[in-house]
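Holo model, manganese (II) ion. Inputs:
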Amino acid sequence: MWEPVIGLEIHIQLQTKSKLFCSCKNSYGDPPNTNICPVCLGHPGTLPVLNWEAVKMATKLATALHCRINPTSYFARKNYFYPDLPKGYQITQHKYPLAQDGYIVLRSGKKIRIERLHLEEDSGKSIHTEEGTLIDFNRCGVPLAEIVTKPDISSPEEAVEFLKILRLVAIYTGVSDADMEKGNMRCDANLSLKPADSGSLGVKTEVKNLNSFRFLARALQYEIERQRKLLEAGGKVVQETRGYDSHRGITFTMRSKEEAHDYRYFPEPDLPPLVLSEEFLGKIKEGIGELPWEKKSRFVEELGLDEDTAWVLCGEKEMADLFEETLKHFPKPKELANWVKTEVMKLWKEGLRVTPIQLTKLLKMVEQGYISRLKAKEVLEEVAKTGKNPEEIVEEKGLLQISDEASLRVIIEEVVREFPDKVEKYRSGKKGLLGFFMGQVMRRTRGKANPKIVNKILGEVLNGK
Ligand code: ZN
Ligand code: MN
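Output:
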């Protein structure tokens, strides 16, 4: 038996207004090469000036991840040549990072330790086309927090859970929207296998650029199988950097240990040590706000939601916010949570939004029996698509539920007269036929009859009352 030993390295873009060392706009999706200047293009003679906003955000993230913040940290140059790195080096932190020794707790209670969190600048972006490679320098110098875990992760599932929680922390603290699709959260994973009964680690490989949760899981699954087969056939794992081909679902060799870069790190001579006062750190700590696991606990302890529901809501901050805002007007947490985690979430994933006011109005209409639960789902979708209020849609579509006992009784008596044989069977014990009669009433009212009231009257009529 083999045990996977997994560590992650994650880069998160910090959503500052400007870049890490110049005043260029930090903005995603602008026309190529429009947010650039001599500093981020690495022109000779230019000097970096540290953006304090980025320091605040990285410190906030590190604090939320339970890291120890180093009062003094240093910048370093990591030298390598690549077309999208015009300076020929990246300003990062090497021996003395901003923060160390943090952790995230998974739902199982397992703690995944974080070795370090440091600040560095992003590179530009190469865009490969048929005619050749184009370079967009807009991303050059965008602030990044790099987070490195200890090899505490034992399965692809744990790796994905860790990354999802990390994403939430970035979103809750407001430092990044950590959107893997846009590349503002990127993940590399290293993995080795060790015999289950052995304390010694195996040789690891690193898989680069896993840009979705699914790809992370698949690349790790593939790599576990590849290494297992290799080891069981008596072969050896080669220490190397691998890529992931998402179309073919395989990892492949990018460069071996021999070809590994020697980055010739040295202290960045153009930047002073980064010194953080106790007062600064205290202010950051105060300003952090509620973290995902704290919100989850509050939903469980104060609102009586079950763990799973609370996690589902807190797993998307927008949904948690909508839930809390709506709760002020519709104070039934369990019922509201059910609507949010199913119907509202489904629409939200399709890009459709409802406001707390719209949701409140709809749920009150259901509560008061004006519309059925089933119809309410249709109405909610229309609300999200059109932006209209629920009562307008109910009116337009004639969805008002029939709760009037007298008119329902007329319909029910008709149905009962029409099926005398079934009534007899019901009376002689086939109580399951109640569903048949209910169906008939619903058909006649086009699903608009209030099921509770129909149920009550049907019982009375069938039992000869
Ligand atoms: Zn610039
Ligand atoms: Mn890095």
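The domain at 405-462 is CATH 1.10.10.410 (Arc Repressor Mutant, subunit A). The mean pLDDT is 93.
Archived with the compound record.
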